[in-house]
Structure formats: structure tokens, C-alpha cells
Give the backbone structure.
Amino acid sequence: MAAFGLASLLVADRIGRSYPHVRLGGCNATTLLRAALVAALLMPLADGWAAGYAVAALAMVALALDGVDGWLARRSGLVSRFGARFDMEVDAALALVLALHVLSGTVVGAEILVLGLIRYAFVLASRIWPWLRGDLAPSRRRKLVCVLQLSVLIALQIPALPHDAAILLARGAAMALIWSFGSDIIALRNEARAQGELR
């Protein structure tokens, strides 16, 4: 509840600063619901009941709703940079919480944290290299890799998954994610260089 309350306060602050519409809309309400589901996944982790079928089921609901908020935003004319960023941050939080579940409750080792921390590492790097804050063109590859990342993290919660298969899935998803982020970094670097921000 504390985590969700803090997230709600941050969202309210950002809405007041950068949301261009007069109503929140079902799209952002859906994303807020997804944030509540992510917060709920902290409970079993804190109680020592990491991973398992219940965690996988709740995470599947959160992932399924990921496609709903964007559709609602387009349908209601409430598309915004705020909504896109809000959705992305909820995805990142979901990935981190699920990665912690995998680390605590399965045979997969610390390499799983690549799937949970890479977004935050990128944000930290952008504080050092401002050109990483540039705008990226919409990318089907980026969306597909995000779905792959979250789907693998959900699959890894299932106790019946063979150990070798779990490790292979985790490493494969990590490689795909590193490739995707690497492609975006190269694109941002080339754009910054073209604009004279880099030499």
C-alpha cells in the first residue's frame, strides 16, 4: 500500500506539470491499476513467498492490461507523452519486481537482474551523458522485446519449468534486451553526432 501510495503521489505531481488533457481518462486509470498490481506483487516477495503460480497469474493480468491502456488512449483522444512515459515506467517496475521474484524463488542466478535493472541503468547513464535523453522514433522491435522480456519473467515464475530451460530463457531474453537497448543507444549517439552534440 505504501509503494502504491508513493507511486500515486508521483503520478499526481507529473500530471499537474505535464499532462495536456483535462481528464485522466480510462487509459491512465488502467495504467494506474497496473501499478497497483505491481505493488501487490511486492507482498509475497516481502513475506518470503517468491515466484509461483499466483505471482505468474497476477503478472499475466498486468501484462494483458499493457495493451489496453494504449488502445484506450487512442480511442479517447488522450494520447500524451505523459501517458507513454507512465506506461513505460510501470513496465520497468513490473520487470524489476518479477526479476527479484525469480532471483529469490528459482534456480536462476543474479544474471536475471539484467532484465529488471537495464532500464534504470539506462536512466542513470542519461544523467552522465545527456545525449541519451534524446527522442527515439516509435519501434516495433522495442515493443516486441519488451513483451518478450515480461513474458519470460512471467514464465520463470512457474515452478514446473525445467531448470535448464529457465536458465536458457533468462539468458536469451537478456541478450535480446541488451541488443535492443544497444540499438537505441547507437541511434541516439548517431543523432547527437549529426546535430553536433558529439564529436
About this structure: The chain has one domain: 2-194.
